[in-house]
């Protein structure tokens, strides 16, 4: 429920017959400012609305051209972040994927979080200013104020990782404020990161020290935010370049200090003993990793965006559209498979003995294969993260085959042969893979009207213990503690069911992040902060085609090179390490400096 908060209500009556008692009546459609701040339930509702408006929890950003109903996570926007990384291409809706093909211009449009962020920040600034005089108990005031400051810091982190330095606004602006307040300049990138880190320190004592309600931040959620933000700042300092007098970039000499802050924050979470890697099904590693994202009673969850099974498409519910858009066929729109993972992503998963997972592409295109042979001894996370040919789903096996190899060796690609369709039921023109992570087989995906698809009830983990361990490993390696880094990575690998490493380097940690955190919205930002996106995201990736052999029911395999296309292949340019401020924003505020290259 949304509340309209009005500081002043002026009622004018031009008719001479208006009576004073009419003018004195309270409006019926607006909850007045005084009522909100004197009613504890409305104060809580106000803050709840701030959480609800922070769409970026689920990687959803606000593009002003979207209808309001699509600004949240009820639609397919949460998947865009995967499609602009090297994890996947678009399976059937390419709105976000197009930006991967060199289409990010000064007009912006990709992963925006500016107007939406400042809307939430203004609400939070008002909340932080007004709560001290509210009717709440002092301990509740302190807790809610700390939560609001955490949420404000989170929004600033989401902005700085997109745009670099942005204006830092900590008071609710008045229309009558001085011009430099209404048209603020961008702070330096380092100043924004330092603001986020200082806020997490300042609010620590005001937040709960028990996990409790994972939909509201605890002290450990503050530490998790600090850990992630400090790791990003360290990376920017180490790998980035200072530009525009510091609006972009951080001096390289600061890298070690930020990495140390990330290490210390992660260490506090680890040492608390409040969280652990999910391991409720230790004898079935595939089931265990799948359930990590489905089980709401979760020892790994530090902070989550909660969902229920009530329609979230503008009807007051809190469901989201993840299952509907990511699911295999059948689907209410005749689609599904929103993200189409690359063959390279599948190959990233090692074998359980720790040997590389990269296929011998020449060898696999010779002879015939079963899927058991093709994926033998793969990292269990492969089977819990991706679906492909013969993955079991809702009591049946998924079928991606495209073409039938007849006994004479010819391949038929349409119609049927002796009662067997030439093409399987899945999206045979995509990549041969879909995303299984977070998918709930119990969700009915044949609905497709009136927004009924937005009824997925899985929680989205914004911060989880597995990420903290990997942040810790990266920070440890960058502060001269390779033993700590190795231990953290091996904890992740042991839970996964894969051989431990004997030593660890930068590439090992980056690999482990790619497979452990796949399709959780981290990869694109990781490639940017490491400053390797120009190389990694300017490559054309591959797909795998399964051709059914009629005689043996095995598969002839074909690697489809350049599945992203050759006319407009993927292209990430150096200026894309920062999103554009955009023409519209610099026109509205002449004090905003555009990022270089746009």
Count of DSSP-assigned helices: 22
State the helical fraction.
25-40%
Taking pLDDT < 50 over at least 5 consecutive residues as the criterion, the unreliable ranges are 1-29, 64-69
Beta fraction? 5-15%
Q: By helix and strand content, what is the structural category?
A: alpha+beta
Strand order of the largest sheet: 10-9-15-16
| Count of beta strands | 16
CATH topology of the domain at 188-304 and 462-499: Serine Threonine Protein Phosphatase 5, Tetratricopeptide repeat
Q: How many angstroms does the end-to-end distance come to?
A: 40 Å
Per CATH, the architecture of the domain at 188-304 and 462-499 is Alpha Horseshoe
Overall form = globular
Q: Mean pLDDT, as a whole number?
A: 92
Biggest sheet features: 4 strands, mixed
The level-1 CATH class of the domain at 188-304 and 462-499: Mainly Alpha
The value of Rg in angstroms is: 26 Å
């Amino acid at each position: 429920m949304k509340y309209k908060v009005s500081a002043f209500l002026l009622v004018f009556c031009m008719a001479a017959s208006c009576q004073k008692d009419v003018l004195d009546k309270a409006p019926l459609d607006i909850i007045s400012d005084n009522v909100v701040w004197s009613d504890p339930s409305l104060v809580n509702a106000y803050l709840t609305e701030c959480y609800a408006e922070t769409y970026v929890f689920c990687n959803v950003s606000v593009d002003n051209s979207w209808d309001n109903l699509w600004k949240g996570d009820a639609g397919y926007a949460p998947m865009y972040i995967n499609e602009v990384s090297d994890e996947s291409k678009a399976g059937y809706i390419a709105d976000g994927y197009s930006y991967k093909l060199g289409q990010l211009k000064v007009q912006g449009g990709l992963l925006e979080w500016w107007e939406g962020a400042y809307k939430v920040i203004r609400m939070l600034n008002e909340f932080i200013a007004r709560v001290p005089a509210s009717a709440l108990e002092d301990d509740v005031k302190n807790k809610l104020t700390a939560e609001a400051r955490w949420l404000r810091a989170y929004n600033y982190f989401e902005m700085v990782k997109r745009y670099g330095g942005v204006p830092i606004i900590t008071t609710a602006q008045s229309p009558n404020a001085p011009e430099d307040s209404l048209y603020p300049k961008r702070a330096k990138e380092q100043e924004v990161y330092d603001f986020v880190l200082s806020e997490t320190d300042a609010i620590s004592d005001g937040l709960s020290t028990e996990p409790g309600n994972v939909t509201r931040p605890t002290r450990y959620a503050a530490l998790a935010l600090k850990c992630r933000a400090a790791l990003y700042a360290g990376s920017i300092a180490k790998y980035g370049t200072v530009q525009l007098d510091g609006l972009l970039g951080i001096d390289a000499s600061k890298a070690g200090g930020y990495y140390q802050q990330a290490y210390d924050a992660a260490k506090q979470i680890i040492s608390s003993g409040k969280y652990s890697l999910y391991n409720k099904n230790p004898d079935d590693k595939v089931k265990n990793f799948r359930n990590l994202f489905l089980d709401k009673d979760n020892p790994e969850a530090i902070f989550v965006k909660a969902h229920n099974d009530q329609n979230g498409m503008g009807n007051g519910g809190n469901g989201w559209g993840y299952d509907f858009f990511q699911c295999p066929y059948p689907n209410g729109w005749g689609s599904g498979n929103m993200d189409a993972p690359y063959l390279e992503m599948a190959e990233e998963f090692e074998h359980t003995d720790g040997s590389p997972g990269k296929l011998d592409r020449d060898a696999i295109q010779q002879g015939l294969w079963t899927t058991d042979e093709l994926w033998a001894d793969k990292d269990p996370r492969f089977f819990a993260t991706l679906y492909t040919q013969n993955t079991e789903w809702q009591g049946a096996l998924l079928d991606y085959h495209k073409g039938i190899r007849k006994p004479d060796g010819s391949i038929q690609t349409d119609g049927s042969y002796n009662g067997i369709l030439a093409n399987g039921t899945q999206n045979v023109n995509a990549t041969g893979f879909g995303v299984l992570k977070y998918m709930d087989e119990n969700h009915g995906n044949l609905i497709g009207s009136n927004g009924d698809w937005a009824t997925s009830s899985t929680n989205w983990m914004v911060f989880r213990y597995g990420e903290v361990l990997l942040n810790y490993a990266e920070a440890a390696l960058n502060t001269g503690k390779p033993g700590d880094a190795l231990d953290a990575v091996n904890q992740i690998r042991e839970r996964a069911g894969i051989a431990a490493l004997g030593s660890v380097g930068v590439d090992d940690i980056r690999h482990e992040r790619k497979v452990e955190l796949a399709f959780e919205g981290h990869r694109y930002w990781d490639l940017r902060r490491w400053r390797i996106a120009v190389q990694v995201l300017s490559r054309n990736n591959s797909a795998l085609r399964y051709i059914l052999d009629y005689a043996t029911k095995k598969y002839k395999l074909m690697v489809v090179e350049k599945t992203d296309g050759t006319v407009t292949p993927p292209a990430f340019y150096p200026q894309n390490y920062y999103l554009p401020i955009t023409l519209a924003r610099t026109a509205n505020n002449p004090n905003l400096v555009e990022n270089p290259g746009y």
